Structures are given as structure tokens and as C-alpha cells.
Amino acid sequence: MRVLVTGGAGFIGSHFVKRLVAGGDDVVVLDKLTYAGNPENLEGAPVDLVVGDIADPDAVAAAGRGCDAVVNFAAETHVDRSILGPRDVVETNVTGVLTLLEWARETGGRLVHVSTDEVYGDLEAGGASRESDPLRPSSPYSASKAAGDLQVFAYVRTYGVDALLTRGSNTYGPNQYPEKLLPLFLTNALDGEPLPMYGDGRQVRDWLFVEDHCAGIERALRAGRAGEAYNLGGDDERENREITERVLEATGASPDLVRRVTDRAGHDRRYSLDTTKARVELDWAPMTSFDEGFARTAAWYRDNRSWWEAIKSSEGYRAYYDTQYAERLKA
Ligand code: NAD
Ligand code: DAU
């Protein structure tokens, strides 16, 4: 199969590209190379990398020529950045998805759109979100992702396009940009920098190793039904406090580095996914325990300092970091 992977130079997308290439598929990547896109993530994968925007129909048409399917990872993905700049997420996360749906409508190709558990909003202890649950997004990021999801369903119903989506939980592993909790804390700990824990640190996320997430998306590509959503969760819920302790243990950093800072605005307390549908219909299940996935991730950041130091020393990263944390860490 020839597949266009949009956002394939980012974290999850680059793992997915390598997976498809290893399985013998023909892959083209379309990526805008925003701050989060990094061609180095694709090292060792012989693919054409086209630099362009998923919201640009001409770029999508050119990159998608001859493709049977598009798998869309391209997005503005960081909740904290979406709070700082709520308009910035709409063009890619909504208009971009619409542009890919137009491609599917014009060509008859399949679109698999990669979405998130955050569209369901947060849950009390005990519950788990099912695909049929109402969407209650809390942040500008998750609201834009929910809008993308709804466009997918509307295009299937109105135009009969072959499109479906997956909703993954908190994904971790090598090559994740060091703005998200685990890579930020691992790299800060390795550098003896503070670990800024929001609020009481008792928020719960469901952790999914990146290779398991990619396996679920591939199953959706090959066996998913048009018009359906599939939850892909790690079935491994942990509080941020525990993640922080694991980082300290793995790096040998001092607990004094942990700083409780002002909470994220609108912070969701807990996410949890019911993954029955993906298990039954896609024959998918997460295979990597948190112990194993975390050990592999911590080792990768320890051994690939040059990858993250290049990012963390850039002007753009420093400016973002100061805006996000300087005041919080002074308090
Ligand atoms: P990432 O931020 O690491 O990478 C995003 C990629 O998209 C980058 O390569 C960037 O250059 C590219 N991109 C951004 N805007 C673009 C545009 N307009 N046109 C073309 N390319 C563009 O993201 P990630 O963490 O790998 O997430 C990938 C997808 O998975 C996103 O849709 C995200 O919402 C979803 N998701 C992520 C997680 C997670 O925990 N990371 C969990 C569930 C779902
Ligand atoms: O649930 C899936 C989502 O997971 C994806 O859709 C998003 O793209 C991805 O970024 C992630 O969103 P989160 O907001 O859950 O991830 P983040 O790593 O930003 O934060 C995880 C938890 O850690 C959250 O409760 C906030 C907290 N946190 C985060 C940072 C960056 C801190 O306490 N301190 C921090 O500095």
C-alpha cells in the first residue's frame, strides 16, 4: 500500500513511518516542520519528506498523488501552548483535517485521523470513556481536536468518504519533544534543572507506549470501519506524582528538584479509556508494560543527549520555556 503520513516527522508519526516501512509499505511524509517536526526523527527510514501544510490543498494533492490512504498525525499537540495561543491550533487541527477530508472525497482514498482521549474531557475516579460518549473538551487544544473528529463523522455521513479515527491516550517513548511531561522531566533531571509539577500532582493519565499506539493505528488503517472511532488506551493509569518519582529514580536526580508550581488553567484531572471496541474489532491490545516502556524511554533520553540538547538550546525553545515556567518557578 502507498500511504501518505502527515505529521510524520513528529513524535508518534515518525515511529509509525518506520513501522510501515519495516512492513514493506511505500510511504510519503508531508510535514510542515513546525518547532515539533524534526527530520532527524526519520533517520534510517527511506521515505520522501515533503515539506508542506495539511491545510494547503495543493500541497496535499501533490504529496498524496498515487496514495491509497492518508494517516494524519499533523497537529498542534501541546495543551499548554494552546492555552497561550488558542487561535494557533485551529488552522491545523480543524482546517487541516477538513483539507485531508477533501482529499479523501476527491480521490476515494482512505483517511485515518489520529485523535486523542482528551476530547471526552476528564472523568471522576472509576469511570472510563467509550467511543459513543459525548465530547466535553476542556482546553483549546482538545476543543480543536474534537472539532476535527466531528468533521470526520460529518464527511462520512454527508459525502460517504472512507474516513475513521483513533483516540489515543498519553503516549510516551523515544523522540518525544521535551515540552511534554515525561521528556521534559527526564531531560531536566539529567541536567539538574527543576521539575515543575502542576498543582498537587495527583492528576491521572493513562500511559501508552508509542509502539503500541502505532500498532493500533495500523490496525485501524487495515481493518477499521469508515465512520467509526476507536479508543487506544494503555490501560495503565498513573498519577503525575508517581511519574515524577520514577524520573528521579531513573536519573538519580535529587528530590529537591521537584517544584510544585501554579496549576495549568482548566487542568483535566483524569482520563481513562474503555478499549473494548479496539480489542474486539481490531484485535489490538497494548503489549508493553509501563516498567518496560519507561525503562526504554529513560535509556533513550540518557543515550541521545545530542538530540534533545539541540532542541533545548534553540532560541524558540528557550523563549517558550521562559514564558511557561519563569514566573511559576520564581513563586
Ligand atoms: P508532535 O507535536 O510530536 O508532532 C506533530 C507533527 O505535525 C510535527 O512533525 C509537526 O511539524 C507537524 N505539523 C504540525 N502542523 C502541521 C501542518 N499544518 N501541516 C503539516 N504538518 C504539521 O505530535 P505527536 O505527539 O506525535 O502527536 C501526533 C498526533 O497524535 C496528534 O494529532 C496528536 O493530537 C495525537 N495524539 C498525541 C498523543 C500524545 O500523547 N503525544 C496522544 C494521543 C493523540
Ligand atoms: O491524553 C492524550 C494527550 O496527552 C495528547 O492528546 C496531547 O497531545 C499530549 O500532549 C498529552 O496531553 P497532556 O496535557 O496530558 O500531556 P502533558 O505531557 O502536557 O502533561 C501530562 C500531565 O503532566 C498533565 O497532567 C500536566 C502535567 N504537567 C505537564 C507539564 C508539561 C506538569 O505537571 N508539569 C509540566 O511541566
Tags for this model:
331 residues; binds 2'deoxy-thymidine-5'-diphospho-alpha-D-glucose; binds nicotinamide-adenine-dinucleotide; globular; 12 strands; alpha/beta; three-stranded mixed beta sheet; 44% helix; seven-stranded parallel beta sheet
Structural class of the secondary elements?
alpha/beta
Give the strand tally: 12
User: Could you tell me the mean pLDDT?
Assistant: 98
Instruction: Tally the helices.
Output: 12
Spell the H/E element sequence: EHEEHEHHEHEEHEEHEEHEHHHH
Query: Can you list the strand order of the major beta sheet?
Result: 3-2-1-4-5-6-10
Low-confidence stretches: none
**What is the global morphology?**
globular
Describe the overall structure:
The strands form three sheets. A seven-stranded parallel beta sheet has the order 3-2-1-4-5-6-10, with helices on both faces. Helix 1 links the parallel strand 1 and strand 2. The radius of gyration is 19 Å and the shape is globular. Helix 2 packs across helix 4 and helix 4 packs parallel to helix 5. The chain is built from twelve helices and twelve strands. By secondary structure, it is an alpha/beta fold. 44% of the residues lie in helices and 17% in strands. Nicotinamide-adenine-dinucleotide binds next to helix 1, strand 2, helix 4, strand 5 and strand 7.
Could you outline the blueprint of secondary structure elements for this entry?
Blueprint: E1 2-6, H1 11-22, E2 26-31, E3 48-51, H2 57-64, E4 69-72, H3 79-84, H4 90-107, E5 110-116, H5 140-159, E6 162-168, E7 170-172, H6 181-190, E8 195-198, E9 204-209, H7 210-223, E10 229-232, E11 237-239, H8 240-251, E12 258-261, H9 276-281, H10 290-303, H11 305-312, H12 315-330
Parallel strand pairs: 1-2, 1-4, 2-3, 4-5, 5-6, 6-10, 7-9, 8-12
Antiparallel strand pairs: 9-11
Helix pairs in contact: 1-7, 2-4, 4-5, 6-8
